Amino acid sequence: MVDAVIGREPIPPAEVGEVELYHPHSWITRYVFSQDAKVIAIQYSLTAMAIGLVALVLSWLMRWQLAFPGTLSFIDPSQYLQYITMHGMIMVVYLLTALFLGGFGNYLIPLMVGARDMAFPYLNMLSYWIYLLAVLILVSSFFVPGGPTGAGWTLYPPQAILQGTPGYEMGIILMLVSLITFIIGFTMGGLNYVVTVLQGRARGMTLMRMPLTVWGIFTATVLALLAFPALFVGAVMMLFDRVLGTSFFMPSLVSMGEQLQYGGGSPILFQHLFWFFGHPEVYIVALPAFGIVSDLISTHARRNIFGYRMMVWAIVAIGVLSFVVWAHHMYVSGMNPWFGFFFATTTLIIAIPTAIKVYNWVLTLWRGDIHLTIPMLFALAFIVTFVNGGLTGLFLGNVVVDVPLSDTMFVVAHFHMVMGVAPIFVIFGALYHWYPKVTGRMLNEGLGQLHFWVTFLGAYAIFFPMHYLGLLGMPRRYHEIGSTSFVPESAHGLNVFITVAALIVGAVQLVFLFNLFWSLRYGRASGGNPWRATTLEWQTPETPPPHGNWGKELPVVYRWAYDYNVPGAKEDFLPQNRPPEPNPA
Amino acid sequence: MGVTILFFSGLAVIAVWWLSTQRLTSKPWLEQGAAGEFPATGVSSAPIAKVGLGVFLATIGSLFALFISAYFMRMQLADWRPVPKPALLWVNTGMLMLSSAALQWARAQADRNKMSGVRTALLMAGGAALVFVAGQLLAWRQLNAAGYFMTSNPASSFFYLITALHGVHVLGGLVALGRNVARAWQGRNLARLSLGLDLCSLYWDFLLLMWLVLFGLLLLS
Fold it and tell me: Does A180 touch chain B (CB under 8 A)?
């Protein structure tokens, strides 16, 4: 292939040379302290899924309490707040961020750009182990006196570190330390993802030939490297306030009848820092999802992605805009009305590049040869769900509409749709899509159908009614609603309905986990390229790809990632490393 | 958050400049790579480690920019009382400059292949950096003795926090410098040593710049 003579000159062979990579020699260095990005990816994914299961169980407990208050005697108001906090923090940071960047980033970036491994394999390995340490610190907070923190995932001071908030003793300290640890570990991984895309691309792999998955993960990593420091600063300063008694965020206040030593600090300062991280975080999760879903749709509809350039520009534009909208999370904290106006405007502007992406996905499907495989089903579910969640975002982006809806179930429904359910759909779709590359076997189709339909319909059964509850005025974070004048009896029935749906959806995730392990052994053998996809990771000489990915020769890239159904071609897809047909002349 | 926005705008300019060299308006679906017109990948010729350090510096820069933003926002509140600045800080600043200059010298010596010169320069750089860290600790003691503790008021809290943060980054750099000292003494892999010196020197210059910004901030408030 390399010596194919096309056009005027032959392309010189790709540099082979001595493969300058660390080679594992023992079981420990191969599977435990491995420096191979693919193994690290699996480690990241399994750890993230394990901690995600904890968060799933917590959501069961919360839903149970909301539907049948008092039936589980161990759930008191403090416990409930702790469940909320841990569920939110685990899902956003330790599951979604870790799985998209640490999991998919590690597995896909080197393979998709045609590299042998990440740029700094040792740092990459450290990144995983520090992440694991952060997870363990977080989990340990369940077992300390007072339990984990119950400050809500936003950890707003002053209440987060005051007596009376659950977990005030040790929980909040462990949470902050865990976050700081996570950020240090993430930075090590993030450097790898960015530099590998910058410097590790195979010959011919220009930026504009990269699959959108890589664009999404790359941009999200850049956002994360710049935004996580804000959380770091906030966490360090709050840790100082809690442990050393400084007053960065703490105003002077009287607690339990005593004047505290704090004075003069600004809780709003923390909110600025937190949301300067918190809003980009939404896109740190969403951009990889955007990228992956583009590739799933294109592959399973056998059609080139519509408007590739627009898709790339939109990813970059969303990344830039995501840094100038943070204060829309703070409308009710009080701010200069002009600031509110500014942030509402920038927030609504983000709808433009986002809408471009949605149109392009739909136009890719238009007259495509749609195969309703499980990955495709999840991709379609993502589009629908993301549009749904995005539309309620338009409500909440407007100051006047947001203020009455703040702290109601409407907000809970909105962010679960847009950054909970939607990205999770992409994660599932991606797992069904790439599982054959990772293991050499297909996931079971029947179980997959069951998993998809219950999850998809169930997610709507859970979150659609929540919008309505929010409009009624049902507050979030309340352990028990009790009887109020504005929440009618029927709302309680709805709460029971939501809980039943949540239990079922949660249970079907166990079916998925079973499928992951069952198919490892009994799944149908997939071959190297079961979806007949164009991107490089499907063209490896062996499946699963061995250490070093490519055998002796690195691939050479001749075309973009979306050559499906090219007129005149013999097959309906042309891999990126397929040279052009020789000229008849 | 003005400082942060300013810093991010600077990064955005760099990013836009870089993207503008990457043919973002090309139409990849029309371009099959025929030989001869095989498009370049746009990969920079700089060593991977240097690109990695550059990205890392952007991250640390973001960290410091956010601390400075927080500093300004906290400063506007009523309970801010300026802290006396120990004169020792000027000496420390000089030490950090000396350290940075010594690393430049080490690079020049490495270019001329003078190993003994490299070794002397490296020891000087490392020594000066250590004196800087020790000097910072001494400045802490002086402030402590003058009755300005971590919790006394927000200005002194910030002083300790920011100098500690900067100091930790200097210590991290010293670990990397130590590895280069070892390389200089073994004297085998000159290319690797030369790259290591480049990286150290870049990092040192960055930390010096950060210190000058932070020191200026402390002096002005």
Answer: no
Least confident segment among A479-488, B69-78, B145-154:
A479-488
Three-state SS at A434? helix
CA angle A239–A241–A244, rounded 5-degree value: 90
- pLDDT of residue A4 exceeding 60: no
DSSP track, B74-121: HHTSTT-------THHHHHHHHHHHHHHHHHHHHHHHHTT-HHHHHHH
Over the stretch B103-154, which tens digit does the pLDDT of each residue have? 999 999 998 988 889 999 999 999 999 999 999 999 999 999 999 998 888 9
Whether B29 and A195 lie within 8 Å, measured CB to CB: no
Pick from A200, A216, A295: which is nearest to A557 by CA? Answer: A200
How large is the greatest C-alpha to C-alpha distance in chain B, in angstroms?
Answer: 74
User: What ipTM score was computed for the predicted complex, to two decimals?
Assistant: 0.94
- Answer whether A240 touches B (CB < 8 Å): yes
Cross-chain residue pair B40–A206, CB shorter than 8 Å: yes
Mutate to test the interface with A, among B3, B9, B59, B175 (most CBs of A within 10 A): B59
Whole-angstrom distance, CA of residue A238 vs CA of residue A247? 9
The closest alpha carbon to A206, from A567, A529, A576, A574, belongs to: A576
Q: For residues A555 and A114, what is the distance between their CA atoms, to the nearest angstrom?
A: 6
Contact between B199 and B46 (Cβ < 8 Å): no
The residue among A314, A285, A284, A279 whose CA lies nearest residue B1 is A279
Q: Is A297:A365 a contact under the CB 8 Å cutoff?
A: yes
Q: Do A5 and B35 touch (CB under 8 A)?
A: yes
Judge contact between A157 and A237, C-beta under 8 A: no
Residue-level pLDDT at A391 = 92
- Residue A263, judged by CB atoms within 10 A of its CB (0-12, 13-18, 19+), counts as middle
Its pTM stands at 0.94
A9, closest residue in chain B (CA to CA): B35
Give the Cα-Cα-Cα angle B192, B198, B201 (nearest 5 degrees). 135
User: Given an 8 Å threshold on Cβ–Cβ distance, is A560 in contact with B31?
Assistant: yes
| Residue A536 and residue A108 in contact, taking contact as beta carbons nearer than 8 Å | no
Bridge partners of A258?
A: A255
Report yes or no: A245 at the B interface, CB cutoff 8 Å. Answer: yes
For residue B35, give the DSSP letter: T
Q: Which of B39, B56, B60 sits opposite A206 (nearest CB)?
A: B39
Distance from CA of A368 to the nearest CA of B (A): 17
Contact A111, A540 (CB under 8 A): yes
| Inter-chain residue contact B55 with A312, CB threshold 8 Å | no
**B34 conformational bin, left if phi > 0, alpha if psi -120 to 50, beta if neither:** beta
B24: number of CA atoms within 13 Å, CB side? 15
User: Which residues does residue A408 pair with via DSSP β-bridges, in sequence order?
Assistant: A475
Give residues 253 to 272 of A whose Cβ lies within 8 Å of B. 261, 263-266, 269, 272
The answer to whether A239 and A315 have CB atoms below 8 angstroms apart is no
CA A229/CA B12 separation, integer angstroms: 17
Is some CB atom of chain B closer than 8 A to the CB atom of A205? yes
Q: Is the dihedral of CA A523, A529, A534, A535 positive or negative?
A: positive
